[in-house]
Amino acid sequence: MKQYQQCLQHIIDHGQIVNDRTGVGTLSTFGYQMRYDLTEGFPIVTTKRVPMRLVVSELLWFLKGDTNIRYLLEHDNHIWDEWAFERYVNSSEYEGPDMKDFGLRALEDGAFHEVYQAEMNKFQQLILNEDAFAQKWGGLGPVYGKQWRAFEGIDAQGHRSVVDQIEQLLIRLRKQPHSRRHIISAWNPNQVDSMALPPCHTLFQFYVCDNKLSCQLYQRSVDSFLGLPFNIASYALLTHLIAREVGLEVGEFIHTSGDLHLYRNHLEQAQQLLEREPRSLPTLEIKGNRTIFELEPEDIQLIGYDPHPTIKAPIAV
């Protein structure tokens, strides 16, 4: 995974200071590409631990077409909690302590951090245990799962149309593997403003050659320290799952970045990671015969993953 270290070094060497919506600020570059040969091992960062179980449960959540964090919480996955929580605490129904700018305040104020954690824990338990609350406040709007499995638009006759892009992709890969139209878009201009977070990984395309399936992702916005390792592992896994479903081998995963940035409060962590030596890549094992839509997190395992220890860094909401 030298490619990931080279990416971080590129941002440090060439990034420009840019203020962003979170108020944290970034070192930002535009346009960068990395390539991973999936036949050489599973491309997961080894210079810090990436929690693969979270990658797996999030991807399966997308593939189910789900947009409610209850499924994630049931699998002890909290990577989307802040966005659902933000919607709730900004609503007229929330009656607890002031949570304005909770992301930054929790980092800077220890006393507030305790109050925030208590409110977040209450919120999580309500999502898990109260159906009506979960239905109303666990949803994130029409984010990835909705766009992948039920993309809404207008057809050629002017009628409302709903397209299951994943199902359509599988059919086309089986019938026309060499088509240049194996494209899935998560960016729906009509619904972006209704999403808790507009899609960062916006569009991906598959390509078949020599019975091998390759995938290229275009990602409009890339948090290089926290988000990017997840994105690499997630789309490498997706390529394996799609290839398995349609009877192909795996080829390459290509990651193309738009705004590739390093948050300024992640600089110390990035430098720490750059001092570490990458380790051997693990291999992926997918157990059983369940279809791509039936898989459970326990069906997917990494064999031989031996990374350096976790490096913690604050999330910018």
From TrEMBL:
Residues 2-317 form the Thymidylate synthase/dCMP hydroxymethylase domain. Keywords: Cytoplasm, Methyltransferase, Nucleotide biosynthesis, Transferase. One of its GO terms (molecular function) is thymidylate synthase activity. Coiled coil: none annotated. The keyword Methyltransferase applies. GO terms for biological process: dTMP biosynthetic process; dTTP biosynthetic process; methylation. Its main location: cytoplasm. GO terms for cellular component: cytosol. Its EC number is 2.1.1.45. (6R)-5,10-methylene-5,6,7,8-tetrahydrofolate binds at residues 223, 316. DUMP binds at residues 21, 180-181, 220-223, 231, 261-263. Pfam families: Thymidylat_synt. Pathway: Pyrimidine metabolism; dTTP biosynthesis. The keyword Transcription does not apply. InterPro entries: Thymidate_synth/dCMP_Mease (IPR045097), Thymidate_synth/dCMP_Mease_dom (IPR023451), Thymidate_synth/dCMP_Mease_sf (IPR036926), Thymidylate_synthase (IPR000398), Thymidylate_synthase_AS (IPR020940). The active site is at 200, 200 (nucleophile). It is found in: Cytoplasm. It catalyses: dUMP + (6R)-5,10-methylene-5,6,7,8-tetrahydrofolate = 7,8-dihydrofolate + dTMP. CDD domains: TS_Pyrimidine_HMase. Catalyzes the reductive methylation of 2'-deoxyuridine-5'-monophosphate (dUMP) to 2'-deoxythymidine-5'-monophosphate (dTMP) while utilizing 5,10-methylenetetrahydrofolate (mTHF) as the methyl donor and reductant in the reaction, yielding dihydrofolate (DHF) as a by-product. This enzymatic reaction provides an intracellular de novo source of dTMP, an essential precursor for DNA biosynthesis. Belongs to the thymidylate synthase family. Bacterial-type ThyA subfamily. Homodimer. This is Thymidylate synthase.
